[in-house]
Amino acid sequence: MGKVLIITDLFPPAFGPRMGYLTKYLKQTGWESEVVTEQVNDKTFDFLAHQVPVTYVSFYTARNSFLRKLQWIFVQILDLCFGYKDLKMEKAAAKRMALTHFDLVLCSSFRTFPLTAARNIARRYNLPFVVDLRDVIEQYSGYEFISHPLPHLLGLEKKIAEWFRDHSIAKRDKCLGVADIVTTVSPWHVALLRPLCCNVQLICNGYDPELFFPQSIPTDKFVITYTGRLLSTAMRDPHLLFDALNRLGKSGQLTPESCQVNWYVDKASEKVIAAEAEQYGVMPFMQFKGYVAAEKIPQILNESSILLLLTNKATDDGPKGIMTTKFYESLAVKKPILCVTSDEDCLEAALNESHAGLAGHNTDEVCDFLLRHFSEWKEKGFTTADTDEQTLRNYSRKEQAKQFAALFNRLTQHT
User: Fold this and answer.
1) What is the CATH number of the domain that holds 343?
2) Does residue 216 fall inside a structural domain?
3) Per residue in 45-55, pLDDT tens?
4) Which end of the chain, C or N, has fewer beta carbons within 10 A?
């Protein structure tokens, strides 16, 4: 049996589903795993914790909110100037290396951290090095990749963001150049990263088959559901849905008494959505439910009539290669999926392949889609999608663990 050390920026109980589900199913493929990750005050994926041994590295220890902000600024400065966070992660990983044998190092990253730490550990112990990139800076339409908004600095904040972007990409690319294999989440990502590493493999995001499966649950309203965040309307544009609801509301075909849109989002996302909904005059349809723990999502999806995915057209200035986990989990419960505004790229192609819904290009087709499934709901009390079974099986987290294991076996000659 082989053993992999996973060095990652996020891991359960924090929002780290890709590596969380990998460790859950990897053990069934003949590979053990251990994790080194940052300590984050988040319990979104608490149900996925305790699968494997985890070393949590803490960077922010202050309890007072003001002191914590100061500490965050101080850590960011140290990290930008000296690579502080990677140094601390590398030290923690080296301690684990001294105590047990590993056959391979896997680093999963949202942006850049902790690629340098993982590269250095792989080099020091002469181990194969696999990089898994869940997201890359180039996929965003603006500066949404920066997790905290920059303060106003007399117009210098844009220059600082551009410098940070270039610095992060250069740091990332340096690590990719020495990786044995790079895995990533969409065909667009593969094409972007292939010039940086000779071996780039597509392993999509997916769904856990033990948690996400279809249930026919009647509801007293026609429910459109969105779960997640809305960073900006440039990244995720809901205007086609709002325009359709405005038109159908005026005609009396849909009313707030028969139809509601449930938003399971944080407060920042709620503000963006509410402003857009007010502009289109559809606030009576809106219900804001707050952000919920991941373990509640399967039930919420199955109690919905339409599952909403928000994106935007993939252009030079728009989002690119966004293949969110929500898409695969929506497929698994076999509910009709409405994707607006269509990316006209990877997500639309996958949605068409699965036969699970509509990637909307205009208001007319969104109206038709809503009315068709509204009629189905009135007849049965619930809706279903005729999702392609083979496509669905390909997106199982269990199958994706087998894909990772096959790569690991190839690098280490394990069988």
Assistant:
1) 3.40.50.2000
2) no
3) 999 998 899 99
4) C
By residue count, the chain amounts to 415
Query: Is pLDDT of 192 > 60?
Result: yes
Which amino acid, residue 151? P
Q: 133 and 256: one domain?
A: no
Residues 151 and 236 reside in one and the same domain: no
Which pLDDT band, with edges at 50, 70 and 90, does 162 fall under? confident
Angle (CA) 191 194 197, round 5°: 160
The parent domain of residue 294 ranges over: 222-393
Transcribe 243-265 into DSSP letters: HHHHHHHHHTSS-TTTEEEEEE-
**Averaged over 205-229, what is the pLDDT?**
96
Strands 222-227 and 259-264: parallel
Exposed e or buried b for every residue in 6-33, given b needs 16+ CB within 10 A? bbbbbbbbbebbbbbbbbbbbeebebbb
- Do 145 and 285 have their domain in common? no
DSSP E strands in 289-346: the ranges are 306-310, 337-340
Tell me which residue has tokens 């005059």: 281
Percent of the chain residues topping a pLDDT of 90: 75
- Torsional class of 122: left (φ above 0), alpha (ψ -120 to 50), beta (otherwise): alpha
Yes or no: say if 185 and 203 are a contact pair by the CB < 8 Å rule.
yes
Q: Residue 265: pLDDT above 70? A: yes
**DSSP string of 106-127, one letter each residue:** EEEESSSTTHHHHHHHHHHTT-
Q: What's the rounded Cα separation, in Å, for the pair 194 and 318?
A: 21
CB-based burial label for 250 (10 Å; 0-12, 13-18, 19+): exposed
Instruction: Give the containing element (helix H, strand E) for 202.
Output: strand 200-202
Residues 73 and 56 grouped into a single domain: yes
d(CA 273, CA 155): 27
Domain-located, residue 215:
no
> Total domain count for the chain?
2
Q: Are strands 181-184 and 129-133 parallel, antiparallel or unpaired?
A: parallel
Chain position carrying tokens 């999509």 = 204
Q: How big is the chain by its Cα radius of gyration, in Å?
A: 22
- Say yes or no: 255 and 109 in one domain: no
Question: Domain check: are 147 and 245 in the same one?
Answer: no
Cα 218 to Cα 135: distance, rounded to the nearest angstrom: 37
The answer to whether residues 145 and 228 belong to one domain is no
Q: The tokens 């849909």 sit on which residue?
A: 254
